[in-house]
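User: quick one, fold this
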Amino acid sequence: MFYKSLHFLPDGFDRQDYIIATFFVEEKPDTDIIKFSEILAVDMSTGTWTAVKGETEQMRQKYAAKVISAHEVPNYEFELPESIQYRRYVISIAVPFVNIGAQIPMLLTTIIGNVSVMGKIKLLDIEFPQKCLKDFCGPRFGIEGIRKILKVPKRPLLNNMIKPCTGFVPEVGADFFYEAAVGGVDIIKDDELLSETAYNNRIERIKHYMKMADKADSTKGEKTLYAVNITDRADRLLDNAKRAINAGANAIMVNYLTQGISAMRCLAENDDINVPILAHLDFSGVMYSNPYGGLSSHLVLGKLARLAGADMIVYPVESGKYRLLDERYRQIAYDLLLPWHNIKNTLPIPAGGLSAKLVPKIIEDIGYDCAISAGGAIHGHPMGAIAGAKALRQAIDAVMTGASLEDYASSHEELKAALEKWQ
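Assistant:
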């Protein structure tokens, strides 16, 4: 049955009252896509698989999700190919914001919760009108705030993840930290695999690392942020953050997808957590890697992370270690950087097997408002970690001055050694 109350013309309603969810759908050739779209809208809001007495017409008018478009790609008009096995669509559905409110768990439950098990359906994008964003704070610091802390107004920043990932005590890790910091790294993060272990206490690690940060800062004349991993049980997260800051940490890190997206938001909107938050990408592939299900990478690693208050986020770049289409990594950066009403931007940190040779490409792709990120390329440099950090700073400087890496390397031995090792 066709319900007029379940349909809007795309330009025939006030979008300010709705979240717009856009999906890719693949269905059998004989599927009635108009009816299927209605089923999706009903399942996202007031109804169920069959008519029920309590779902009134008045209720549908006010609270039911509405189908605003269902476009087939390619757009068959006269007949279907004889051998066709499936048909593909892009469907947009408007969900009343009043059903959800300014919270991410119910947002995802509504638009991709039950829908995710209804076939080959992937959430491509979410449109958030300004009215719906006003109760989200987003990043507390954003790129401008991080640059202000570091006193670096323009150039790309340099991020390091300490390697090896685990298996060392805080005193040993402090040596790794110092070498990276004094070599010119701006932000040093724990590896996502290290939060707190029996052999590496978080508070002890902070004390040792921040002592090394002070030492390195006085030598290089620049400041270093240390993003300590506080990921833990839900009931411990806020206490971990407060204790880390009290111990001297000047940034914190959260594995935000395994921890919970809204858990990170709780930190970002808590006035006691007055340091930048770094979000890590782990678990994201589980959510976006299926081309026929889940949700797009730019939502997982872009819009939702930014909405939940990540000041900076580490995410994949195609490098040999991670696999991500080039246009996807750039789209993630755009979702982090472009103006978005009241929400500050988030620092993109492309990462994963990155070495000096990729620096020009990343800066050309997404601009100066990013952080070049490296673990192995710093700690595995043939001349040592200090030289590894210097090599990446030299690569950044080369791009900033308009020189090629090869020309710049001719007078900078650290960069030359890096280019020779990682060709």
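User: anything notable?
Assistant: The chain has 18 helices and 13 strands.
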